[in-house]
Design goal:
- By secondary structure, the chain is α+β, with helices and mostly antiparallel strands.
- Helix content is 19%, strand content 32%.
- Strands 1, 2, 3, 4, 5, 6, 7 and 8 form an 8-stranded antiparallel sheet that branches.
- Strand 6 and strand 7 form a beta hairpin.
- It is globular and about 45 Å long.
Length: 158
């Protein structure tokens, strides 16, 4: 299944990395990854594997990390594109790349449709897990991203 990933910026997007298996949230029609703050868009929680990410100008992409005020895009050539996500969303820093459209096609393999929403998931996790446990889950996700991207260090690793 192909799902569109388009940024809302301001750290309001889901990170996607080829090979990752995690919970993701799709729009009502399952054609886009949800983003932003609009609760009515968060209708479909799925557990899925990210199989492939592609972009019309960049080609194959290994991952999109939407952590912090700059996003990191990893084209298949091993480089990284740092993109402003706050003051000038979509502005690329110091790069030979030129991108006119930030829409990506993400091929996913759905493992499970949970029937939950992001609000239900967060409410449950806030009751079930302490802040330290939630922090550990975030760190595990970051470790997984770094492993999948072949990185030992990353600016978004905080």
């Amino acid at each position: 299944m192909i799902v569109k990933w388009e940024p809302y910026w301001y750290e309001l997007d889901q990170s996607v990395v080829v090979g990752d298996m995690d919970f993701f949230y799709l729009t009502k029609d399952c054609s886009y990854f949800t983003n932003g703050l609009s609760a009515e868009n968060y209708d479909h929680e799925i557990r899925a594997e990210i199989v492939k990410i592609s972009h019309p100008e960049l080609g194959a992409v290994s991952g999109i990390i939407a952590i912090g005020l700059d996003y990191s895009i990893y084209p298949g050539d091993g480089n990284v594109i740092i993109v402003n996500a706050e003051e000038e969303p979509g502005e690329i820093y110091d790069s030979e790349y030129a991108v006119s459209n930030w829409s990506f096609d993400v091929q996913i393999n759905i493992i499970e449709k949970t029937g939950w929403t992001v609000i239900e998931r967060n409410r449950t996790e806030n009751k079930m897990f302490t802040q330290n446990e939630q922090r550990a889950q975030r760190q595990e996700r970051i470790r997984r991203y770094k492993t999948l991207l072949g990185l030992s260090k990353a600016d978004w690793d905080c």
